[in-house]
Design brief:
Purple Acid Phosphatase, chain A, domain 2; 35% helix; alpha/beta; 16 strands
Length: 345
């Protein structure tokens, strides 16, 4: 039997090449797709959420949290037009039978939930049977999902992805997405570089103006978006606050909202409870790289870092670009031979 390869990347965040588009290293992505296209055997590429950054894309110059299918289709067309080489490379990957691509939904690309958006991407990539979409990808050994479903700020009800408001069908966005669109997108516009520095506490320590602006917006969101939400946004179902989820976050993590490394272990435990019996659980979403065997439960915990432009700030305040990471799972005779988290250069 031939080999089977599963390749997993996350958080590419393709936009429309404006100030809000954080994807910069197109050449690296093209080289990665070319590399896995030439890999012998059956190859599956899992785009593990936030493949596209619909969340930070304005619609005809305006940001709105009321997302119709028409708006999502318009944004999808802008992304396709902005990155023709990327889509050409993906089409070439799919042309090698029996290669397949699977898109998991992420908190920046809930727009993929729309049937019309899925059909448009399948048409663009040239094969409606070899391009699939879902909340997660799994087989008997692995479970792969973006990670927002174990994040109390971005969790959605998979049974209720859409709601009707003023006779329009809209995406049922989580509070985290609404907060970005209504409050924090202004921070991105004002501090486009500082927002890309990880971990967050380093950015706050080294860029005091960024910290002050973030605190001001956060206070505004807490007051208007949370405490007075039922008055200011009365009748708007997309702006509803899931107070129970916020209380769960506080019980699990206190008031910490920036240190994703502190959230990681709890989220893996929750994944293992929801989908028991797997050898490996693989997430994105956290914007960090992690590979560890859980010493108690004997499963692999893997997090792929982002492919968008991000930096780490060193002790001398020099910025260092974070490496692009991917997971490679090799099967032979239907048995896993290796699972690696690798840097791509």
């Amino acid at each position: 039997m031939t080999n089977k390869n599963i390749f997993i990347i996350s958080d590419v965040e393709l936009g429309q090449k404006d100030i809000f588009d954080d994807f910069k290293d197109e050449e690296a992505l093209l080289n990665f797709i070319a590399k896995i296209t030439d890999e012998p055997g059956k190859n599956i590429l899992i785009m593990n959420g936030d493949s596209f950054d619909f969340l930070k894309m304005p619609y005809k110059g305006i940001f709105t949290h009321h997302i119709t299918e028409e708006i999502s289709l318009w944004k999808t067309e802008r992304i396709i037009d902005s990155y023709p080489k990327v889509f050409q490379a993906l089409r070439k990957f799919l042309s090698r039978s029996p290669n397949k691509i699977h898109f998991n939904f992420g908190n920046h690309d809930f727009d993929l939930l729309w049937p019309g958006v899925q059909k448009l991407l399948q048409k663009c990539l040239g094969d409606d049977k070899k391009v699939t979409f879902g909340d997660y990808y799994e087989n008997r050994e692995i479970h792969v999902e973006h990670g927002h479903q174990v994040d109390y700020f971005y969790k959605i009800d998979p049974q209720k992805p859409f709601i009707t408001y003023h006779k329009e069908k809209l995406l049922n966005l989580p509070i985290g997405s609404v907060a970005i669109i209504k409050y924090f997108i202004a921070l991105k516009e004002q501090f486009p570089y500082e927002e890309k520095v990880y971990p967050r506490h380093q950015a706050f320590e080294n860029y005091p103006e960024f910290r002050k602006a973030k605190q001001k917006i956060a206070h505004n969101f807490i007051l208007k978006g949370l405490l007075l939400n039922f008055i200011i946004h009365i009748g708007d179902p997309v702006s509803n606050v899931p107070y129970i989820n916020l209380i769960k976050h506080i019980f699990a993590h206190g008031l910490e909202i920036h240190d994703e490394a502190k959230f990681m272990k709890k989220r893996f435990r929750n994944l293992a409870k929801l989908y028991p019996g797997k050898q490996s659980y693989i997430m994105g979403h956290l914007h960090l790289a992690h590979y560890e065997l859980n010493p108690i439960r004997d499963y692999l915990e893997i997090v792929t870092d982002t492919w968008r432009e991000e930096y780490r700030l060193m002790s001398d305040k020099q910025k260092v670009a974070k490496p692009k990471t991917y997971v490679h799972i090799l099967y032979h005779n239907d048995q896993i031979q290796k699972i690696n988290l690798l840097n791509f250069s």
